[in-house]
Amino acid sequence: MKYEAVIGLEVHIQLKTRSKMFTRVATGFGQPENTLTDPVVLALPGVLPVMNKEALDKIVKAGLLLGCTIAPVCKWDRKNYFYPDSPKNYQISQYDQPICLGGTVEIELPGPSRNVMGEHKLIPLTRIHLEEDVGKLNHFARESLVDYNRAGTPLMEIVSDPAMHSAEEAFAYLTSLRQTMVYGGISDCDMEKGQLRCDANISIRPVGATYLGTKVELKNLNSISFVRDGIAHEIARQIAVVEAGGTLVQETRDYDGQTGASQSLRSKEMAHDYRYFPDPDLMPVKVDEEWKARLLAECPERPFDKQRRFFTQYQVPYTITSVLVPDRALSDFFEAAAQLAPGKAQAVGNWIVNDLLRELGNARLPLAESKVTPAHLAALVQLIEAGTVLTNAAKEIFVEMFASGEKPDVIADRKGLKAAPTDTGELEQWCRDSIAGNAKAVAEFKAGKDSAINALKGPVMKAAKGKANPKLVDETLRRVLAAL
Amino acid sequence: MPELFHQPVAALADQLAAKKLSAVELMQAVIARTEAVESRVKAFNSFDAADALARARASDERRAAGQSRGPLDGIPVGLKDVISVAGQPLTASSKMLANFVSPYDATVTRKLKEAGAVCWGRLNLDEFAMGSSTENSAFKTTSNPWDLARVPGGSSGGSAAALAAGEACATLGSDTGGSIRQPAAFCNVVGMKPSYGLVSRYGLIAYASSLDQIGPFGRTVEDAAIVLGAIAGHDPLDSTSFKTEIPDYRAELSKRRGPWKLGVPKEYFGAGLDPEVGAAVQAAIDYYRKLGCEIKEVSLPHTQYAIATYYIIATAECSSNLARFDGIRYGHRSAKANDAIDIYFHSRAEGFGAEVKRRIILGTYVLSSGYYDAYYLRAQKVRTLIRQDFLNAYREVDAILTPTSPVPAFKIGEKSDPLAMYLLDIYTIGVNLAGLPGASIPCGFTRGGLPIGLQIIGRPFQEADLLAIAHAYEQGHAWHTQHPKL
Fold first, then answer.
1. Mean pLDDT across chain A
2. A80–B319 CB contact, under 8 Å
3. Coil, helix or strand for A160?
4. What residues of chain B lie within 8 A of the CB of A276, using their CB?
């Protein structure tokens, strides 16, 4: 029998806010243990939560970017359970009225080859809600210690419908979700810092069936490739169990990305009763149309929308947009340069994808620290277009420009990299010499083979020691040939 | 002239302002009085005389420099031991927090300090404010200064008893179902629960968050007005605190003269009301009539559901609020514990008293999956009806008059059945459920010499009216000038 997997993802993303969800203390990563705390974070007797409005702004923006319906009121509930990483032993969360409902994540599946765009799909979302993160337990031989630095960090939980059917789709979903959230300034989504965490609910069913099979929750998928590998492993495991005549049990499994194996953590019987109830310490907050409109105005264009616009507005191919678009800063750089070099967007894109990224990579610099600005790049492209510099010279200029931040024409002048002089008398003589020395090419050209002219250019360039303006060479050759 | 420690804040403030008295002298008198009577009253869990004297000295220096902060500058104000004071113990009268010292000031503490008051002592209560007698304190049972064999009421029993005994000049308590008003009635002092949201709860150990309010105890209505004025107002640290203009309550006392329309709810004068209490309250009602007030019978038809509703909502919230006391970060940790689960079970088993456990268990039950709709959700609906009862009555009347407690102070150990104790809150609990302001003022004594309290319930956030109505009664009576013989 053929099986199909059904996958839903629960993704937790820390919001990029200065302070914590319900108190003024700063958020952060990698600080000394328990320094990002205050009486509220530590749940000392008598403290009260106060909502961080910036966090609500960010999650509403996330919802708007994903096309969710935004609830008219942000309501808070308590999720009660005891665990040492949870200072109050309840988590302030949203239970029956999440702030965002519905929405979709647009994904792109791998194409037939790396240079060809793959199929796009919309993965529907169930809900997004806001809550607070918990602390971190550190286990030692004889004791466990708790670090509450992370506790209280604003955290959103994005729950997809069980609408994905392969590890590749899940991978594409996370990739797209991460890009969109980074674009929106909602989170940096750095999985190594725990800013994005993913649990997967996975079941299988015979192809064609519409029911949902017994689901297994896979936890600790702490990198995007572990998500893909873990899900692929779990699908294979479930199929193997069923094919061997076994029965799947509803359980939570822990995936170990290092070993590529998973083990059972707990079964359904140990499910919690969280005793949710509305948090009496927090008043519901109205999210009115004006507020939403302001946030919508702050939302950036979504990555795939931008990619489609780049295709039509700049006619740049997938090979370039697929590199530019995932990085908002890079695509902004492109667009700024492309607008300064009208009609040369593809050349701009090529320079960014090939040369700028190579230099940044070699120098281990982020784009923000690049000395090459969009204006520099546009100027360089225009120098080439005007025939003022030749491609090889331009490559040299670019490297120099990356190192020094000087303008390209300054570098070209200083290093004598500008194409040759406008001394047409000398150029015409070289052209005549070349024509005289290559009767075969001349005959072919005269017979209508236009490309035969290229054979005549080599000797001219050689005579010009490589510094002739190719456009001018071409024009002069044609003029002389026409006059023959 | 009564002894310094029995004088109202208003009178003391005048003497301080006239430099006939220094804050240090006043503090010394209160310390001496406390040392003299505390072994019998047992109102304090602890006090820090050195700290209080230093603060009194600072007050005198301010006054000498012409920088007095007003009527509370240099006045010793006692705080219930659920209100946080930076650097002082904060125990909630629980073994769980027996050794806990709080690192921060509650908003009311900060405001009292800004008004120059000397935060004085940690006052006993029923553990975590759960009870009506202070017998649930893990440390001691406070005695009623009027009869040491009797309870001072609760849960703010220490706050009421300390004031009545002259161990503080004013005090703060907290009121979740009557915990300020009932002990005020039992101890012959004025006690006031403000509208929910008038006073910040930041720094008050939460029992039931949607019901808790901090409020003042004073010897007079004027004193209560002075203290309320100092602590009231919106606080950005408490999302449930209300943005409203705070009038000068003290100045309004004499400006608002009525006559008022006053309601008497028939449901509050039924079975279970002690005849002597009933007679004293009736006499108070008659007095208002004499003042020209119109007295109208009103109905609060859902009164009979108030106690059941309260014990669902309050216990549900407390089961969650008290979850933080787990032995992990602070507070009692059992020596028997070997792992995290053990720490929870043993620390909480050892750290909490019977009544606290009873309410946590009740609250956990009513929130459990499958019971939530039947209990918690339904109780919230009834709560809305109870509030609506009051708001309907306020279409016809300005305030409502009732007994504060159906009985005067009972003997220590007399009420061993928890349910019998719960039923004593019958007249006060609806006010919390409805979020209204309520005050208890002295209105007489039983033949046996036990104080009786009149409860006045006001419109939401109309504390100035409520206090003016109380003040009008007090002006014509001298109950509040009587002090227990200790």
1. 93
2. yes
3. strand
4. 367, 372
For A187-240, the pLDDT digits (tens) are: 999 999 999 999 999 999 999 999 999 999 998 788 888 999 999 999 999 999
Catalytic status, residue B159: no
In this predicted complex, what is the ipTM? 0.96
Range of the domain at B107: 4-259
pLDDT at A271: 66
pLDDT higher than 90, residue A97 = yes
- Please state the φ and ψ torsions of residue B439, each to the nearest 5 degrees: -130, 150
Contact yes or no for B102 and A45 at CB 8 A = yes
Looking at B68, B179, B200, B405, which residue is catalytic? Answer: B179
Amino acid B128 reads F
The two tokens of residue A253 are 């499994």
CB–CB contact B367 A280 (8 Å): no
Closest CA to B206 of B182, B249, B169, B238: B238
User: For A244-327, where are the alpha helices, taking DSSP H only?
Assistant: 289-298, 303-309, 318-324
Per residue in B421-468, pLDDT (tens digit) is 899 999 999 999 999 999 999 999 999 999 999 999 999 999 999 999
Q: Measured in whole angstroms, how far is the alpha carbon of residue A343 from the centre of its chain? A: 27
Contacts of B425 (CB under 8 A, 6+ apart): B132, B177, B178, B182, B307, B310
Alpha-carbon distances of A16 from A361, B52, B277, rounded to whole Å:
26, 45, 61
For residue B106, is it within any domain? yes
Q: Where are the domains of chain A?
A: 3-292, 301-414, 424-483
Return the CATH number of the domain spanning residue range A424-483. Answer: 1.10.10.410
Q: Would B458 be classed as within a structural domain? A: no
Q: What is the DSSP letter of A71?
A: P
Say which DSSP state A41 is in: T
Q: Give the span between the Cα atoms of A337 and A320, in whole angstroms.
A: 14
Average pLDDT score, chain B: 97
Closest A-chain CA to B197 = A281
Residue B179 annotated as catalytic = yes
**How many domains does chain B fold into?**
1
Q: What tokens does A92 get?
A: 């302030």
Q: How far is A38 from chain B (nearest CA, A)?
A: 10
Is B47 within the bounds of a domain?
Answer: yes
Which residues on B lie below 8 Å from A50 (Cβ)? Answer: 236-239
Size of interface A-B (CB pairs under 8 A): 99
Judge whether B278 lies within some domain.
Answer: no
CA atoms within 13 A on the CB side of B36: 14
Q: Is B80 annotated in the active site?
A: yes
Question: Which residues, including other chains, have CB under 8 Å from residue A231's CB and lie 6 or more apart?
Answer: A5, A7, A167, A170, A200, A202, A218, A221
B341 CB-contact burial (10 Å; exposed 0-12 / middle 13-18 / buried 19+): exposed
pLDDT at B74 over 80: yes
Cα–Cα distance for residue pair A62/A51, rounded to 1 Å: 18
Contact predicate A48/B202, CB 8 Å? yes
Residue B65's domain is classified under what CATH number? 3.90.1300.10
